[in-house]
Design goal:
By secondary structure, the protein is of the alpha/beta class. It is about 35% helix and about 25% strand. The protein contains seven helices and ten strands. It has a four-stranded mixed β-sheet, with helices on one face. Strands 5-8-7-6 form a four-stranded mixed β-sheet, covered by helices on one side. A hairpin with a 4-residue loop joins strand 3 and strand 4. The longest helix is centred in the C-terminal third of the chain and has 21 residues. The chain is elongated.
Length: about 210
Protein backbone atom coordinates (compact mmCIF):
# COMPACT_ATOMS: atom_id res chain seq x y z
CA UNK A 1 0.00 0.00 0.00
CA UNK A 2 1.07 3.55 -0.65
CA UNK A 3 -0.01 6.54 1.42
CA UNK A 4 0.59 10.27 1.17
CA UNK A 5 1.62 11.20 4.71
CA UNK A 6 1.68 14.58 6.42
CA UNK A 7 2.53 15.74 9.94
CA UNK A 8 0.06 17.54 12.20
CA UNK A 9 1.64 20.00 14.61
CA UNK A 10 -0.27 21.83 17.33
CA UNK A 11 0.80 25.41 18.05
CA UNK A 12 -0.71 28.33 19.91
CA UNK A 13 -0.55 30.60 16.86
CA UNK A 14 -0.73 28.71 13.54
CA UNK A 15 -0.39 31.89 11.52
CA UNK A 16 2.93 32.87 13.11
CA UNK A 17 4.18 29.30 12.94
CA UNK A 18 3.24 29.11 9.25
CA UNK A 19 5.23 32.28 8.58
CA UNK A 20 8.26 30.68 10.24
CA UNK A 21 7.96 27.58 8.07
CA UNK A 22 7.64 29.76 4.96
CA UNK A 23 10.33 32.36 5.68
CA UNK A 24 12.93 30.15 7.36
CA UNK A 25 12.41 26.61 6.10
CA UNK A 26 11.27 27.27 2.54
CA UNK A 27 7.76 25.84 2.81
CA UNK A 28 4.81 27.20 0.85
CA UNK A 29 1.21 27.43 2.01
CA UNK A 30 -1.25 25.36 0.00
CA UNK A 31 -4.32 26.03 2.15
CA UNK A 32 -6.21 22.83 1.38
CA UNK A 33 -9.97 22.95 2.05
CA UNK A 34 -10.54 22.86 5.78
CA UNK A 35 -6.83 23.19 6.48
CA UNK A 36 -5.85 26.87 6.19
CA UNK A 37 -2.33 26.29 7.48
CA UNK A 38 -1.37 23.26 5.41
CA UNK A 39 2.24 23.68 4.25
CA UNK A 40 4.51 21.76 1.89
CA UNK A 41 8.09 21.95 0.65
CA UNK A 42 8.11 19.17 -1.94
CA UNK A 43 9.24 16.41 0.42
CA UNK A 44 7.21 17.03 3.57
CA UNK A 45 3.69 18.26 4.35
CA UNK A 46 2.81 19.87 7.69
CA UNK A 47 -0.65 20.78 8.92
CA UNK A 48 -0.56 23.44 11.64
CA UNK A 49 -3.53 23.43 14.00
CA UNK A 50 -4.32 25.59 17.00
CA UNK A 51 -3.83 24.02 20.41
CA UNK A 52 -1.33 23.52 23.18
CA UNK A 53 2.16 23.55 21.69
CA UNK A 54 3.87 20.20 21.34
CA UNK A 55 7.45 19.47 20.42
CA UNK A 56 8.20 18.67 16.80
CA UNK A 57 11.67 17.53 15.70
CA UNK A 58 12.57 17.87 12.04
CA UNK A 59 15.80 16.45 10.62
CA UNK A 60 17.24 18.47 7.73
CA UNK A 61 19.70 16.65 5.50
CA UNK A 62 22.44 19.15 4.64
CA UNK A 63 25.43 19.20 2.33
CA UNK A 64 27.17 21.72 4.62
CA UNK A 65 25.96 21.65 8.23
CA UNK A 66 28.10 24.58 9.38
CA UNK A 67 26.97 26.86 6.55
CA UNK A 68 23.28 25.99 6.95
CA UNK A 69 23.52 26.39 10.72
CA UNK A 70 24.93 29.91 10.40
CA UNK A 71 22.19 30.87 7.94
CA UNK A 72 19.41 29.58 10.19
CA UNK A 73 20.87 31.28 13.27
CA UNK A 74 20.37 34.65 11.59
CA UNK A 75 16.68 34.19 12.39
CA UNK A 76 16.04 35.68 15.87
CA UNK A 77 13.62 32.83 16.60
CA UNK A 78 16.35 30.19 16.13
CA UNK A 79 18.86 29.33 18.85
CA UNK A 80 21.73 26.87 19.05
CA UNK A 81 20.81 23.88 21.17
CA UNK A 82 23.75 21.58 20.44
CA UNK A 83 27.11 22.47 18.91
CA UNK A 84 28.19 20.91 15.62
CA UNK A 85 29.43 17.40 16.37
CA UNK A 86 31.11 14.83 14.15
CA UNK A 87 30.76 11.13 14.86
CA UNK A 88 32.07 8.23 12.79
CA UNK A 89 29.71 8.69 9.87
CA UNK A 90 27.79 11.94 10.37
CA UNK A 91 28.02 15.63 11.22
CA UNK A 92 25.07 17.13 13.07
CA UNK A 93 23.86 19.92 15.32
CA UNK A 94 20.57 20.90 16.94
CA UNK A 95 18.65 24.17 16.85
CA UNK A 96 15.67 25.21 18.96
CA UNK A 97 13.03 27.38 17.33
CA UNK A 98 9.80 28.96 18.42
CA UNK A 99 6.49 27.07 18.10
CA UNK A 100 7.95 23.94 19.68
CA UNK A 101 10.13 23.16 16.66
CA UNK A 102 13.53 21.57 17.01
CA UNK A 103 15.78 21.25 13.97
CA UNK A 104 18.46 18.59 13.61
CA UNK A 105 20.91 19.53 10.85
CA UNK A 106 22.48 16.34 9.61
CA UNK A 107 25.00 15.22 7.03
CA UNK A 108 25.80 11.56 6.39
CA UNK A 109 29.48 11.37 5.53
CA UNK A 110 30.36 9.58 2.31
CA UNK A 111 33.57 7.82 1.29
CA UNK A 112 35.08 11.06 -0.03
CA UNK A 113 34.27 12.97 3.17
CA UNK A 114 35.90 10.19 5.18
CA UNK A 115 38.80 9.83 2.71
CA UNK A 116 38.41 6.06 2.53
CA UNK A 117 38.63 3.60 -0.34
CA UNK A 118 35.76 1.12 -0.28
CA UNK A 119 36.63 -2.49 -1.15
CA UNK A 120 35.81 -3.97 -4.53
CA UNK A 121 32.89 -6.44 -4.45
CA UNK A 122 35.26 -9.17 -5.61
CA UNK A 123 34.78 -12.94 -5.64
CA UNK A 124 38.22 -13.75 -7.11
CA UNK A 125 41.67 -12.91 -5.81
CA UNK A 126 43.15 -9.62 -7.05
CA UNK A 127 46.78 -8.65 -7.19
CA UNK A 128 47.14 -6.46 -4.08
CA UNK A 129 48.67 -3.47 -5.87
CA UNK A 130 46.13 -3.71 -8.70
CA UNK A 131 43.25 -3.80 -6.23
CA UNK A 132 44.52 -0.63 -4.56
CA UNK A 133 45.18 1.15 -7.87
CA UNK A 134 41.68 0.42 -9.19
CA UNK A 135 40.07 1.66 -5.98
CA UNK A 136 42.12 4.85 -6.16
CA UNK A 137 41.33 5.39 -9.86
CA UNK A 138 37.61 4.94 -9.16
CA UNK A 139 37.69 8.19 -7.18
CA UNK A 140 37.51 10.00 -10.53
CA UNK A 141 33.99 8.62 -11.00
CA UNK A 142 31.28 10.93 -9.61
CA UNK A 143 30.04 9.63 -6.27
CA UNK A 144 26.52 8.93 -7.50
CA UNK A 145 27.84 6.55 -10.18
CA UNK A 146 30.77 5.08 -8.29
CA UNK A 147 29.02 2.10 -6.74
CA UNK A 148 27.78 0.86 -10.11
CA UNK A 149 31.21 1.52 -11.70
CA UNK A 150 32.86 -0.44 -8.90
CA UNK A 151 30.54 -3.36 -9.55
CA UNK A 152 30.94 -3.21 -13.33
CA UNK A 153 34.72 -3.21 -13.37
CA UNK A 154 34.87 -6.02 -10.82
CA UNK A 155 32.38 -8.20 -12.67
CA UNK A 156 33.98 -7.69 -16.08
CA UNK A 157 37.59 -8.04 -14.92
CA UNK A 158 36.81 -11.26 -13.04
CA UNK A 159 34.78 -12.71 -15.92
CA UNK A 160 37.55 -11.95 -18.43
CA UNK A 161 40.17 -13.32 -16.05
CA UNK A 162 38.33 -16.65 -15.78
CA UNK A 163 37.87 -16.70 -19.55
CA UNK A 164 41.64 -16.42 -19.86
CA UNK A 165 42.13 -19.29 -17.44
CA UNK A 166 43.22 -17.35 -14.37
CA UNK A 167 41.63 -16.98 -10.91
CA UNK A 168 43.77 -13.94 -10.17
CA UNK A 169 42.99 -10.50 -11.63
CA UNK A 170 46.25 -8.85 -12.68
CA UNK A 171 47.08 -5.22 -13.47
CA UNK A 172 47.01 -5.55 -17.24
CA UNK A 173 43.53 -7.05 -17.30
CA UNK A 174 42.18 -4.65 -14.69
CA UNK A 175 43.44 -1.58 -16.56
CA UNK A 176 42.09 -2.84 -19.87
CA UNK A 177 38.73 -3.30 -18.17
CA UNK A 178 38.88 0.17 -16.64
CA UNK A 179 39.45 1.67 -20.09
CA UNK A 180 36.64 -0.45 -21.58
CA UNK A 181 33.98 0.72 -19.11
CA UNK A 182 35.04 4.39 -19.10
CA UNK A 183 32.92 6.72 -21.28
CA UNK A 184 34.82 8.24 -24.19
CA UNK A 185 34.60 11.77 -22.81
CA UNK A 186 36.41 10.64 -19.62
CA UNK A 187 39.25 8.74 -21.28
CA UNK A 188 41.66 11.68 -21.16
CA UNK A 189 40.93 12.17 -17.46
CA UNK A 190 41.43 8.44 -16.91
CA UNK A 191 44.78 8.60 -18.67
CA UNK A 192 45.91 11.42 -16.38
CA UNK A 193 44.77 9.61 -13.25
CA UNK A 194 46.52 6.41 -14.31
CA UNK A 195 49.75 8.33 -14.87
CA UNK A 196 49.37 10.01 -11.48
CA UNK A 197 49.11 6.56 -9.91
CA UNK A 198 52.37 5.49 -11.55
CA UNK A 199 50.69 3.39 -14.25
CA UNK A 200 51.93 3.79 -17.82
CA UNK A 201 48.66 4.73 -19.51
CA UNK A 202 50.22 4.39 -22.97
CA UNK A 203 50.10 0.61 -22.50
CA UNK A 204 46.30 0.77 -22.45
CA UNK A 205 45.27 4.04 -24.12
CA UNK A 206 46.27 5.43 -27.51
CA UNK A 207 46.53 9.13 -26.71
CA UNK A 208 46.41 10.07 -30.42
CA UNK A 209 42.92 8.62 -30.72
CA UNK A 210 41.43 10.72 -27.94
CA UNK A 211 39.08 13.42 -29.15
CA UNK A 212 39.39 16.85 -27.58
Amino acid sequence: MHYVISLEHQVKNPELAAQFFIDTLGFYQTGKDGYPFFLENGSLSVNLVQGESHDLTLTLQCSDVEKDCLVLLKDPDVHLLQEITQTDHRIHCALQCNHGIRLILNKILNEDDLDILLPLPSSLAWDEKTDLNIRRILRMVPLGFRKSARQRITDKAEYDSVEQGSLMVNESLAMQTMVAITPAFQIRALMEVMNDEGIDSSLYIDASSIED
